[in-house]
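Submission sheet (multi-component)
Chains listed below:
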Amino acid sequence: MHIATRSSPYARWRSLPLGTAAITDGFWRRRQAINRGVSIRHGWRMLEQSGNINNLRLAVGNGEGCYRGPVFMDSDVYKWLEAAASDLAIRPDAELEQQVDELIDLLTAVQMPDGYVNSYYQVNKPTQRWTNLDHDHELYCAGHLFEAAVAHRRATGKDTLFEVATRFADHIDSVFGPGRRDGAPGHPEIELALVELYRECGETRYLDLASFFVDQRGKGRMRGHGLWGPQYHQDRVPVREAMVVEGHAVRQLYLTAGATDVYLETGDRTLLAAMERLWEDMAFRKAHVIGGFGAQPDGEAFGPAYDLTSDHCYCETCAAIAAMMWNWRMLLATGHARYADLLERSLYNGFLSGVSLDGARYFYVNVLQSRGGIERPEWYGCACCPPNVMRQMALVGHYALSSDDAGVQVHQFMPLEANVEMSAVGTVKLRIATDYPWDGHVRIVIEQTPATAWTLAVRIPGWCNQATLCVNGEPVDGAGARGRYGRIERSWCTGDVAELSIPLPVRLIEPHPRIDAIRGCVAIERGPLVYCLEAVDQQTGAELLDLRIDAEAPTEAVWRGDVLDGVMAVLAPGAVVDPIDWDDVLYRMVGAQTTSLRNRAMLMAVPYYAWANRGAHPMRVWIPSL
Amino acid sequence: MHIATRSSPYARWRSLPLGTAAITDGFWRRRQAINRGVSIRHGWRMLEQSGNINNLRLAVGNGEGCYRGPVFMDSDVYKWLEAAASDLAIRPDAELEQQVDELIDLLTAVQMPDGYVNSYYQVNKPTQRWTNLDHDHELYCAGHLFEAAVAHRRATGKDTLFEVATRFADHIDSVFGPGRRDGAPGHPEIELALVELYRECGETRYLDLASFFVDQRGKGRMRGHGLWGPQYHQDRVPVREAMVVEGHAVRQLYLTAGATDVYLETGDRTLLAAMERLWEDMAFRKAHVIGGFGAQPDGEAFGPAYDLTSDHCYCETCAAIAAMMWNWRMLLATGHARYADLLERSLYNGFLSGVSLDGARYFYVNVLQSRGGIERPEWYGCACCPPNVMRQMALVGHYALSSDDAGVQVHQFMPLEANVEMSAVGTVKLRIATDYPWDGHVRIVIEQTPATAWTLAVRIPGWCNQATLCVNGEPVDGAGARGRYGRIERSWCTGDVAELSIPLPVRLIEPHPRIDAIRGCVAIERGPLVYCLEAVDQQTGAELLDLRIDAEAPTEAVWRGDVLDGVMAVLAPGAVVDPIDWDDVLYRMVGAQTTSLRNRAMLMAVPYYAWANRGAHPMRVWIPSL
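Outcome: structure written.
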């Protein structure tokens, strides 16, 4: 899922090695503790219960009954493995490690002598490998195996799963490639995984195969009708010629993440130019305010530009994760803060809403408006999202920092300790303290540093105003411009303190005038958090549909330790529309009557990520304004 | 599809016999000519091509290949038959009648010795009759057979198809009913058809069986998950306890039409009370402005109250037809103009949009907004709508008039000649002249009348203001109140003229404040017509998404004989929003910048029914206001 330091010659910045930045406290530490304590355990039970593990046992001849679930059941096992391994990298746990080892033993047994691994085909269609690349997900599952294997090796130093992965990769490389067989996976994923495999072991065949799969698209090979036509699989045009993000959102975003990985290793700027173009189409025309992507339920797909409904949207949790993966790679490739900004938007909103506060229930679809009746189930028949949330949660600290030859970059703000290696300077040890996202003060303490000067770059979010960056209490001139990185180049001493202060006023947000579905509405934001009204918090007794916000009145942020495990709530003045005038009519002549406001009301908003944790109450992010 | 005069003791008003009111000219005459000249012929070709006819031939052993299409393919044949028969009732045509006779010969041959007719079961599952009432549509198909048979007998006087129908009805009655087998069809339709069969021949077993099927619902027998749960089939609660319309819209509306038919014959007021309650839920909370129903694509279903999007809606053509059928029955049951008003709204908008101006292409889904790319196909794999349009079009004159013991009621305004029988008075011959919907003058000439006094009642549409009703040029006091029937009781003389004058100003319409999707928008209406903006008519060169209407400026209606076979277009002043301020942002702080208006523009709107006849241009009914 992440990008290693040891390669990536065309990366402007590089990821830190897995496990070198550990979150110590605060918002995300709590989420990670629940991820380990609840989600990963719950995930294992669900994989047993849903048949994923049994499918693997069937492949070695000791399972029960028949293969169960969709063709990509193995991939959920791999994502769970990647989550467990990534978590072990931060906090060792002998019991979890043993469970992981036993699962790897099973996978080793499943692997065929020629390296092939796929329980669906081994059990159901042993003689039909690679006959349905568009829909049967063999290469997709392989990609998740590779990602898990890389994470496992990096976390534990063991080669057990990595050997399974490279044997399978070698087999795939013997089947596909120039002079061998043409073809591309209906669901991208293997591209970025092959690049990670290459980064881990230096085998250039893996990078070449990743490039090959990227280049195979757009040959009109993947057929299908209507929504499931070539655009569904990003096969309408070659990747370098694509002008818009389209089709199945997770496929599109895993593909662009993989293509960006190929750029990072090969430096092919025609790829980067296409990625920047596609990113702008996504960010400026097809993004929900929660950092959710794929507006359209039909085909789990990107919709047309500006077609961003609140209630009939999709915003699959996996798509938010895929977008974060891509944004991280674009950030490393370019050093532009806009990618970290959008990553942050998904992280705190459209991704985090994917899991309940207790860690045991999951959203697949993340709507921005509910008329009631929507809650997170504990699992899904198509359970791609829950284990994806688990691996993302275990890795969240990874998005905080990066490094280059003579600098450290701070992207996301969370309390952590890290040893960061700058290749030309040496290693710095730093500690970050913050109560972000509730508070905008971020204190970066240099605990150990080489004598040579190096540069600390700190992201000033694009959404903030009047941020200040200080060193040892002295403001750094010109370093507070939003949407950029505030840079401090100096000879650092142990004990130096850099301090970022971001005011966190409540912000009222309006949508692009081409977005029909939320015309006349505003959203509430504070810091990186998007807020929502949940009916259970409103004191008016009125229907949520009848509430209006006064977009010109002052709002107030109030800490509510008693609500939703503790949140900064927002109080916003508004009013209740009286629908009595409309009792027996849905449409009427303009100006026939004025709709009356019954009374003023104080609306209470809570962070979007926390909604639907107190029952299936009506909710809305976009609030009609008076 | 319609209700006969000879029965219905609890009807306040009664339908005219089939064929007694013939449209002579104008808007609907032209549509009917195309229906006969193009649509019905096209329909036959499609039934041959899609396998419907071959499925019947397979059932008698001389078809080719395998059964093709969904389980309800026979019903499309029956709807086509009903269309052809209803058209023959107005205008004889030897060739069409022969084609009908040959098809009936085939159906007669298909019928099993015990009366059963269903090509899907006879070909594919001969031993499994009635094993899947929820999904396999045997009773639904039977209902369409009965409707076709009644229409055919009424139109031609022949018993050939009617005998097939009654034999099948007798068979069904031997299987289902009290003391026999329980059960209800997953897709209602047979209920209203059995009542029609009863009306036609007086066999009370058919009425009893219709009541039985209505009463069988709500016993939780129909299972299924999520959207396809009991509510999908209207099986969640008994019909008399239902508070809301829900689930699959066509199923709901055929059911309510059938339940209303049962009321009309039995006088069971608990049924009527439920129907009035459900109608109000539909009309006041779940109706699109075009008179379209079933907002939700998933499950082709009614959505929650006020959830009425323009672009992601469904509004199946069959649902508009089903709503018209139900409204007609409610009108006859109660004499309330609101049912005729809503019928008119569907007739001129959400129904009529279902067919192209040339009669050869059909919408299944009727959206109120397109971003481009939407056109009518010539047929569907699930082709319920096209033949439903054909039978509705052939019968449209039927919705114009009704009668009671001593009166004639005029509901829909179209040029026609009719002989209307009032049971206590005698027969009146009248002629109606009008250029409706383009013009609001309706001239009703009494060409022959009994000497006894009788009452002429004329609907004053709920949407109009300042209508006047005159007799021989003299205004009738108090008869112009909108949303009621203007009544003239007198001793009529031959040559008397009643004249209705409805001013037809352009009306700008606003939506209920709980409808999120179209907040801040207005729709344009004139007379019974809802208008839309189609990109091809706009002279600004701007994107349709950037147009705004000035809801306070005067509009103008202009006859455009050169556009869409001749329409009254509406010119409305507006402006173009300049999206340049928004080039690289989708969301921004309220008040950060004012969105600029590039320039004023004159918008041109055309009737909604006529859209998508000049290519797949962007279109919208609801227009954002300045």
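Remark: The first strand of chain B starts at residue 14 and ends at 15.
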